[in-house]
Amino acid sequence: MKSSLLAAARAVTPSVTLFWFRRDLRLQDNAGLYYALKENKDVLPVFIFDTTILDTLEDKDDARLTFIHQSLEILKQQLEELGSSLLILHGDPVELYKKLNPKAVYTNHDYEPYARARDQRVKEILEAKDIAFRTYKDQVIFEKDEVLKDDGKPYTIFTPYSRKWKAAMKPFYLKSYPTEKYTRHLLKTTPLPFPTLKDLGFVPSTIEFPERVVKKSIVEKYDTQRNFPAIRGTTRLSVHLRFGTVSIRKLAVLARQKNEVWLNELIWRDFYHMILWHFPEVETKAFKPAYDRIVWRNNADEFDAWCHGQTGYPIVDAGMRELNTTGFMHNRVRMVVASFLTKHLLIDWRWGEAYFAKKLLDYDMAANNGGWQWAAGSGCDAAPYFRVFNPHLQTEKFDKDMTYIRKWVPELDTQEYPKPIVDHAFARERVLRVYKEALG
Fold it and tell me: Ranges for the Photolyase/cryptochrome alpha/beta domain (predicted)?
């Protein structure tokens, strides 16, 4: 990776403005990139493979790295067609920015606790050198304090938040940022070095990624088809939203036109990012503190059976095998497997959240944390603790013909398939007792 540092030393002069790509891997309708190009000449896009994050990844064939790498290849090609290029760096962003002396750095907001701390440190380093650090809203429609209760406090219940969100929605918030008007302000340069995954210490994943295509026919039928995992009833755009290869504004425009239920899913996304911003402690603690008094069983063997889809509950096992194989799990099934882990097995939601964080292509801390705390009953606007999903009833309602299940559990009717790891009625009675004792 020395070549990229040498390229950076040559390319990043005091007349060059950097645009720092993070969760926004596209040229079109990119807020921070738009302002960088509009307000400056000689803008050089940069992406940093952050070793603070990468060093925590256990799997060297992590599919997300392959997805990012492929997305950056597309960006690099697009930039080179415009006479510019993409600077790739590898290391700790804080240490790298100590060595770089551009005219200014532009980027888009990130709301996760680590990212907030990192960006604050980068800002301090740059401003100490009289270099501007400017950030913009791009990955959500409304952020931080933009949708609050009348008393100025953040919402913790989704329904009133969504009503206020929709009332605040004006065409201004959905306007595209016309970056194409200013691409002439990109730095003209020859192609810059582009590292392989091997250079970064990883190997290519064989997982197939969802297309970067918005299928209107799916959006139109989303409200009637979204709960059935055997059919293509969801857009599969979550990984593209996570890494910003599609614009949230483009999707919100379509949602308003075609399907309010799908729009609500986008609003949930904003809601969880708002919660993480105002309550960053949810990263490690229950949103409702009383739930941290629950005495979890945390049986390692049962957790392992859950992870590998060997619980003896077909819909749970199908979901976990889909996740392990594809990096994706249908949202209805996500709720079922999360409820099963926390309620049937009485295993701490943080264990499940961490496993999803390792496996999900679309892993997003705000949504993942929100979803797991919802399932455990410990989160904001969560399912009440006495709501325990019955996997058999969920199967009857949403995979009656067992099409989804048989795809992922082909040995279902054979001696090879395990017996149920726990009896549903027993597990339900147990969890209600344990939760009630903890919550008083």
Answer: 15-141
